[in-house]
Design goal:
The longest helix is centred in the middle third of the chain and has 13 residues. The chain has two domains: about 30 residues, no CATH class; about 160 residues, Nucleoside Triphosphate Pyrophosphohydrolase, CATH 3.90.79.10. The protein is built from four helices and ten strands. The chain is α+β, with helices and mostly antiparallel strands.
Length: about 200
């Protein structure tokens, strides 16, 4: 039987790492899907004494988000109005754990924060703002931890990536106040919003 399935094994040249030869493997992919595919890490920090309050930021549009968060200028402008989770796409060959450590350092200037093992969430969706685009495929590594409110100081972060950084009570916050569809990420992590479904 010849399968018609396409598996998520990507190899541009069809080279077999097992055999060390160039062969055509028809059930593997030679290109990423048309709608794209992203690997991202999210650092979700709760306030130590109040776990329903989560550390979120509003983007500083003049900060180097292309370098610290893989956001081009158009995305920075589009998402600068709402709250966002400290996050980034993984750098090529970077582990999710190293990405989370980089986010803590570059976006929050935090050291010695203990994060739990990541929860992996996978989503396939058509972008809300562009319903005519092909489906996009996301792999999201959600890292949870907690810190004391006094440990967070936006003024001590190099390049000042946030115009505002605060612990936000999600139970008193509407999903509309969250940027980049990060409300979906927070719900995947178990949080409820003011307007969450019962």
């Amino acid at each position: 039987m010849t399968t018609t399935r396409k598996f998520a094994g990507f190899n541009k040249k069809g080279q077999s790492t097992t055999l060390g030869t160039v062969i055509d493997i028809p059930f593997r992919m030679k290109e990423v899907p048309d709608g794209g595919m992203c690997l991202s890490a999210f650092v979700i920090l709760s306030e130590r004494d109040n776990p329903e309050r989560v550390l979120l930021g509003r983007l500083n549009t003049s900060a180097p988000w292309d370098h610290i968060g893989a956001l081009d200028e158009d995305r920075v402008q589009a998402h600068s109005k709402g709250w966002m989770i400290p996050s980034s796409h993984l750098i090529i060959y970077e582990s999710p754990q190293d990405a989370a450590s980089r986010i803590l350092k570059e976006q929050l200037a935090l050291k010695d924060v203990k994060l739990g093992e990541p929860r992996l969430v996978s989503e396939v969706y058509t972008p809300k703002r562009f319903p005519n685009l092909p489906q996009h495929w996301d792999f999201e590594f959600l890292f949870r931890g907690d810190v004391e409110e006094r440990a967070v100081d936006n003024k001590k972060i190099p390049d000042n990536p946030w115009r505002e950084l605060a612990f936000v009570d999600l139970g008193k916050t509407s999903k509309k106040e969250i940027a980049r569809s990060h409300e979906d990420i927070l719900e995947s992590a178990g949080f409820k919003f003011l307007d969450s479904s019962p």
